[in-house]
Amino acid sequence: MRHRNATSILCVLMSGCGLAGRSAAQNIAGADFEGKRIISVAFDPAQQPFDAAELDEILPVKQNQPYSAENIRAAIERLYATGRYQDIQVDANPSDGGVSVRFITKNSWFIGKVSAIVDFTEPPNAGQIVNASRLELGDPFDAAQMPAAVESIRKLLVENGYFDPMIHPQLQYDNTYQQVHITFAIQTGKRASYMAPAVSGDTSVLSAEAIGKETHWHRFLLPGYRGITASRTRSGIGRVRLKYENSNRLLATVVLDGIEEKKAENKGLPKITVNPGPTVKITTPGTKISKGHLRENVPVFEEHTVDADLLTEGSGNLRDYFQAQGYFDTTVQYRQQAVRNGAQEITYIIERGRRHKFVYLGISGNKYFDERTIRERMFLTPASFAIRNGRYSDAFVRRDVETITDLYASNGFRDAKITTRSEDNYKGHTGDLAEFFAIDEGPQYFVASLDVQGAHKLDLTKVIGSLSSQPGQVFSEFNVAADRETIIRQYEQNGFPDATFEWSSKPGAKAHTFDLQFAINEGEQQFVRQVVVTGLETTRRSLVDRELELGPGSPLSPAAMSDIQRRLYDLGIFSQVNMAIQNPDGDEQRKYVLYDVEEARRYSITAGFGVQFARIGGSNAVTDLSDPGGAPGVSPRVSLAVSRLNLFGSGQTGTIQGVVSTLQRRAVTNYLVPKIFGLQKFDANFSILYDNTFDVRTFQSKREEGSIKITEHVTKPITIFYDFTYRHVGVSNLKIDPLLLPQLAQSVRVGIAEINLIQDRRDDPVDAHKGIYNTVDVGLATKAFGSQTSFARILVRNATYHKLGSKLVFARETQIGLQPAFAIPANAQPGDPIPLAERFFAGGGNTQRGLPENQAGPRDPLTGFPLGGSAMFFNNTELRFPLYGVNINGVLFEDAGNVFPGIGSISFRTVQRNPQDFDYMVHAVGFGIRYRTPIGPLRLDLADSINPPKFNGFPGNYSQLVQCSAANTCQASLQQISHFQFFFSIGQAF
Amino acid sequence: MRFCVHAAPLLVLTMAAPFAQGVIVDRVAITVGNKVITESEILRRIRLTAFQNDEKPDFSVAAKRAAAKELIDQKLVEREMDVGRYPHAAPGTGKTLAEDYAKTSYKSDRTAMDAALGKYGLTEHDLEEELTLQSEMLTFLDLRFRPAVQVTDDDVVKYFSEHAPPGERPSTLNEMRAAIEQKLTSARAARELETWLEEQRVSTKIEYNDKDLEDAPAR
User: Fold this and answer.
1) Which of A175, A259, A673, B188 places its Cα 20 to 30 Å from the Cα of B101?
2) A664 in Cβ contact with A693 (< 8 Å)
């Protein structure tokens, strides 16, 4: 009984306390404290998102100051505006004749890493799932967002045939940074397959069966249907629509009403409603225009609807099209018939008029700009070889007037006026058209004074000095806009996201001058509180840390943030790097910068198969001495590379690569250390190579090599490689005079140190149109490096690319290579002392297209096989031009050059004196075709060698050669490299 | 018996706890985006309204809800003014407006006005703040909505014919044109503001920490 009483008393009291508390809260107290001294300001919990100094800065409520309800309210407002609090209450307590104030707070949460753990095959992939959740890194987190996120993911999965997914969001709270990491654990079961679609609507044009077939949802040549994916569904519906379009049903509608889930069978029944609409026939009676051009110019085809706007747009496009063809007087009107018997006809009546030729463009009145400067901005182009009738239309004239006016206005000619005049039958030639532009420049306006106001927190001295609107400089809105960009960018880079710029001007004291005033509102500067990186699983934190240019206290610069993101991507170990500012809208001075990384897959496997079809010298058989000058041949090639990324979490990469072809067997192991010793500009590469090659058909070389290469990225266009290589090269199966075997068949050990500088200022390394490409390679092989042979190597290459007009490219390249030997042993045999495998071998698609691959230079006097040389010179010139459409280009080229036994043998002579003389320039001219692809142009070059070398070959096999050589009875057969050479490959020749 | 032994200290603690924690003097009642309305702000709004209407303050839940609604709209406008960089009232505006208020409502007797404010638990600063806010609201209305309002001649004629006293001569229309135009412009701008506020109430995250205020009927 007492128990019961006690319990009920306790409950009543507790309720009473609760009520008392509630009542106090409802009738906010505090009037009694007004004006009393604040004894202390405390926080509950003690651990706050801001440190004491920041809180002191934020809060207007301070110790030893009088209590004020207004300040308490302002304090709550300011704390809440920071975005870091979900709820704030303030209580007060009489204390020591004053009042103690306590802020009771509840922190906000922000979205951290969002990831997905899935048990099914793609699509959708984890990235698509995360995107579907619409939970953005750094945004405020609200648990109420989760049901919507789960529903979006569910929808995505259903669209991809996973009808009954189990989605479990798991939240992991990180108190340190007020982050919530969200992981969606998803189980789906097996992907459902399509069923034959249920088609409703008008199936008179295409039957349900035909529609089902057109979707391609059925397996090709196999029974059953394919698995449901969103992209298959989209493309299936698209194909049906295209089918209608191809039969002139431009207005056909094909709507996927949904996919009905058949869970028991794990299938989905697509429901499609079709309406073929009328046939729409678009004709141009009396005027020929291809179907493709009609489609391009009349937007009805693309928009699947017929309305006055689109038809009028079509008229304009067709007029421009014909004007561009030289029919400058073209007028286009359309007639639209009502739908009759399920058909609608749209007729474009095109009056082309007489074909003109735009022959002359006259520009007068220009003093400030020369004619070339004006012309290069204009659309109008008089007739030329490339544009037979010239480029002219009314629209182009209007555009050019606007362009020239803008050009003058941006240079201070605010009153410039341009008038135009056309003259038909120019100089009495029927159909010739001339257009005259008369320019009245008017006065040029200048800046009399510049007054920059409002720059208090940031020193703008340097920036102001670099502005375009300096006193004495030209005054134009264009310059002011550029100055605005410069100033605002400067503020943004220094953490002023809200900086604004306004400007005003008034006439200056002198005529045609203006006094300028720039007013800057800087706003608050923001700083980095801390950079927070999430998503590191195996990667070492220190590797990432050294890429973080921003740290606590740095100005919050979006440019610096993006730079860090780029650097993290550049490590090559992250497949994704998301970047965000936490609590972006919160009114706080210091913000967390978040990087959420996704580590890339650790293994990457690349396999390749290719066939080399070219003029390949000689046969593979060791004893076969036929075709030393090359014969068409095929060499299949297989390659496989396995890379292990991010070894030991250090960002280093190990690669094993193998290549096997009928000409080569190669195995390479690479170990790449990016940014070695933390040096941003230096990478190191260690490699071990085994190579067994027969590409120079004179001999088979077996190379075992170890090398260390340091790469220095000096500037964007300049890279230097420091390389030390130690190799053992053995040659065998030599197809040369047996008497030379003792000299050339020796294995050799080479230790060589090289420095290679590359300067690349090309606009596009894959297919350059302008710029310069230089390389200088200097090497030294000496006993000091453990080399059995001593020589130096200098290889210089200079290529330049020039645009001729808007479409032609002139490209040229010169290569010079020298390889002088030194410290030659006294007992060395005469001839070239450089080991065979270390000599220059050249000729072929990238050096001299008048010769097959590696067929340039000296040859064995008995067999005719190339022996390589110690000097080389090549000069290539190309004229690249458009050939057909935008993707096919043509090339005319001239190649000159050869390989020589030494520097003293280099000769520009074009005539070969005898079959033993190879010290002359081989010249070749030719034509090539380039087909543009994303990986570079596909190349076919056909070359005609003007003076291919003649040489002595041996008409027998190697055994016969040995016999006749011993007896000194060998009979030479005179041979010559073919005049015609061809090359297939990818990429320009240089 | 064992329960009593254990319950007694708990009882004492439970009773003592609210006193040890002190009195809640203010707290977040409603959040409007990144702005906040505190409970004291709602009470002050009730007092100010009562003061301006010269009536007894009503602290009922319904009155609090009504005040909260007004404050939500005010915060939405403030937010928009911040984002759109609308001009805020010049410093000293509140003082001038309070003087004007004293002139019209208290015949410039500041002592009487201060006494009246004190009766409602308000200070002159509260009044100055309120009048400044009202002035800024009008500025916002003028800048944001008034320029877009168009009043045609037909609108003026229609208004005149609907509202003019019977038998008024047509010449009177010209005399009243400017006044009618202003009246129609103000009414339409106010309608635009109301439409905009409705959109903002839907699109802005508004959360009621004080759940008693939540059930306020939609305005």
Assistant:
1) B188
2) yes
Minimal-distance CA residue of chain B relative to A499: B85
Residue B4, chain A, CB below 8 Å: the answer is yes
Task: Render pLDDT for A33-77 as a digit per residue (tens, 0 to 9).
Answer: 888 999 999 999 999 999 999 999 999 999 999 999 999 999 999
Angle at A896 between CA A890 and CA A900, to 5 degrees: 145
Burial class of A875 by CB neighbour count within 10 A (0 to 12, 13 to 18, 19+): middle
Asked whether residue A282 carries a pLDDT value surpassing 70, the answer given is: yes
Lookup: tokens for B190: 């106010």
Query: Which residues in A lie closer than 8 A to residue B14 (C-beta atoms)?
Result: 10, 13-14, 17
CB contact under 8 A, B38 and A76: yes
CB A156 within 8 A of CB A128: yes
Residue B4, φ and ψ in degrees, nearest 5: -60, -40
For residues A760 and A717, the answer to whether their CB atoms sit within 8 Å is yes
The interaxial angle of helices B39-53 and B61-83, nearest 10 deg, is 100
Q: What is the pLDDT of residue B85?
A: 83
Q: Are β-strands A513-521 and A446-453 bridged in parallel, bridged antiparallel, or unpaired?
A: parallel
Chain centre to alpha carbon of residue A88: 48
* Sign of CA pseudo-dihedral A555, A561, A562, A567: positive
Mean pLDDT is lowest, of A498-512, A516-530, B15-29, for: B15-29
pLDDT given for residue A141 in this prediction:
94
CB contact under 8 A, A69 and B26: yes
pLDDT in tens, A142-181: 998 999 999 999 999 999 999 989 999 999 999 999 999 9
Three-state SS at A84: coil
Report the alpha-carbon distance of residue A101 to residue A67 in Å, rounded. 9
Q: What's the N-to-C CA distance of chain B in angstroms?
A: 58
pLDDT band at B170 (very low <50, low <70, confident <90, very high): low
Whole-angstrom CA distances from A572 to A655, A657, A710, A934 are 14, 19, 18, 21
- Angular region, A340: left φ>0, alpha ψ -120 to 50, beta rest: beta
Compare CB distances from B3 to A3, A31, A93 and report the shortest one's residue. A3
pLDDT reading at B10 higher than 60: no
Q: Do A30 and B18 touch (CB under 8 A)?
A: no
CA angle A943, A946, A950 (to 5 degrees): 110
HSE (side-chain half, CA atoms, 13 Å) at A130: 19
The torsion region of residue A32 among left (phi > 0), alpha (psi -120 to 50) and beta comes to alpha
ipTM: 0.82
The full length of chain A comes to 990
Read off the DSSP letter of residue A589.
Answer: S
Tell me the C-alpha to C-alpha distance, in Å, between residue A157 and each of A203, A228, B26. Answer: 31, 10, 48
- Identity of the amino acid at A293: H
Measured CA to CA in angstroms, residue A8 lies from A16, A538, B9, B18 at distances of 12, 59, 16, 20
Residue A688 has pLDDT above 90, yes or no: yes
Token couple for B85: 């960089």
Burial of A475 per CB tally in 10 Å (0-12, 13-18, 19+)? buried
Confidence of residue B219 (pLDDT cuts 50, 70, 90): very low
Q: How far apart are CA A358 and CA A380, in angstroms?
A: 9
- The two tokens of residue A653 are 């990469």
| Partner-chain contact B25 A70, CB within 8 Å | no
Q: Give the range among A355-364, A753-762, B3-12, B70-79 with minimum mean pLDDT.
A: B3-12
Strand-pairing partners, residue A577, are: A597
Say yes or no to pLDDT of A388 above 60: yes
Cβ within 8 Å, pair B26-A33: no
